[in-house]
Amino acid sequence: MRNGRGSSIALVLAGVLFLLASVAGFLNANVVNGPRFADHVNAMRTDPQLAAQIGAQISSALVDAQPDLVAIAPALQPAAAAVVASSAFDGVFTQAVAAFHSALTEQGSESAVLTIADIGSSALSLVEAIAPDLAKNIPPGLDVTLAQIGGQQGVAAQVIPLFQTITALAWLLPTLTVALWVLGIWMAPARRVAVLRVGWSLLAVATTLAVLGGLAWMTSRLYSPGPLPSAVLQSAADVFGRALAVRVLWTAVVGGLLVVTASALLPQVHVHELVTSWGRRLTRRPSSPAWALIRALVLVAVGAGFILEPDIAVVVVAIGVGIAVVLTGVAELDLVVERSRGAAEDEGAWRWAWVPPVALGVLAIGLVAFVLVPSALPQATRVAASTGDPRACNGHVELCDRPFNDVAFPASHNSMSAADQPGWFLAEQPTGMVESLDDGIRVFLIDTWYGQATRSGGAVTAQRSLARAQSDFTAGRASALTPAMERTIDRLRGEQTLGPEEPFLCHTLCELGATEMQTELAGVKSWLDQNPREVVTIFIQDAVTPADTAEVFEATGLADMAYVHDRGDPWPTLGQMIDSGRRVLVLMENEGGAARYPYLHSGFDLVQDTGFTYESVDDFDCAPNRGPADAELFMVNHWLSGFTTLVSSAQQANTEDVLGQRVRTCRDERGQIPNFVAVNWYDQGDLLQVVDQLNGVA
Question: Does 137 reside within a domain?
């Protein structure tokens, strides 16, 4: 039944609902969505202005706790700000924010106060790692003082219903919007005109969201409740504003495509003429004296605001230019389609004029689904393709003809223990395995344990591994346990676990850092696919059975790339390994795969190594440790003991003077090249240069 009035009412309501749906979808994707919210807050933390203000608060708290620190107050604030903004804080901070978000948004959660304490305590742990000299001045028990800064009980009771409402609206409003669009188009006397109105309503919504976002951004700059709150508001406006800009852009693109699609089929509609007419109206001086006065006052106010706040001018101009460009593009597309339609009519081939608008319509329908998606789309694993010489092997043509056991490779110790990954305390590397491949690491020393995921994104040590993990932790790292770590262990063990026990990459206790083994190795496989001229080694300290380890390798596809070596046989060259497709060497520290999984080699049948417990750089030696003396591969373990000075220790140990001298001495004493040069915090010092020198390449 055609009803013009009813169609107009339905389309107007649909436009209003779409605006509300866009707001609800944005909030659901960026605020209700815990991981995405944590990423946004972490991005705010790295804002230099906000970090400086937080650093000022921390330094003030330090001086209040111990007044004698006023003597070094000028050094406290920049040091604290550097720690706050440090990339080493990414993983722990993001995990803490995600857990805090979960505490406020999930029924039955009571861990919000503990999580706030964890953030403060973790910051102090980073001070100890990054600036040990400054850490000596921190009053004892300050993390306990920070733990007393808690949220108010009962906040979750208010937040949970609000977030549930937003989530419901994020799904309900788009559904109602689409239903009203369909109804309005079906009832319209001229359905192509109705589709055109839908397109214009999307452009209106995009413009409204852009204006609202711009006003919020300007308000964050003009409203000043205090130095720290102002910095928080400005940083939030920047970070969340970028997320809103993406939604505005796609809404405008979809609206423009719908306008062009509909107008292409309506000879009486000329979009380019409408856009041009609006442009003239905006730039023409009003004939009415009253409107002319209002226009003059507005221009004076805007100009004065731009002079006083030039940053605002940049944003406003950018938004205005963006809107103008989108509308101009829509007009140009319309003009092209109109000319094509005219040519088709002249040639008697009008049926072909339907092709462009139908194609645009299909594209618009596909994009509208993206605009209406209420939650964030998953992000793909970052994989960088090789850009070097296509003939090279591991970056150097000279290495292609060398046997594997005559090549030195840069290695990372406890490669999975990454500072930029969520939940890792006492991280021993700056980043995860895939990112470290981009940086040049080719050997990974990893630990596998059984764990179980928890609802907040962390993991707990599975019962089958717990006794052994606790024993190993007590023997190795228990002295580094801080109150924040203890609270994290208690919190995670009190959470509901998700799924079965499965292999995780953990350094003993999974509560202090865990990455799902299959996910991480799948990223390595993707990287290898994109970099076909690279040979990689994975050395596993295994608390997971060979059968379960093999299952992960088979699931990720790495088993098909795994090289099998029989002890005593000559090693292939890197070029031969690459040509065969078998360019991943897998070594197991405790239990090999035997005949059933021959690619899971018993590591210390093939490898001999040095010690791995050294208190200072003066203690480094080349004395034999594990593996037979005639093993054909040689690993140099080069890191210092102690978990509270990991970064500063790496800065001392990884220099050319220390690392370079040691590996050359070990080469001479042991009579073979150090194949695996393993360090902590590989980005500190000269690891890659030292390995290149061992290989004799530039």
Answer: yes
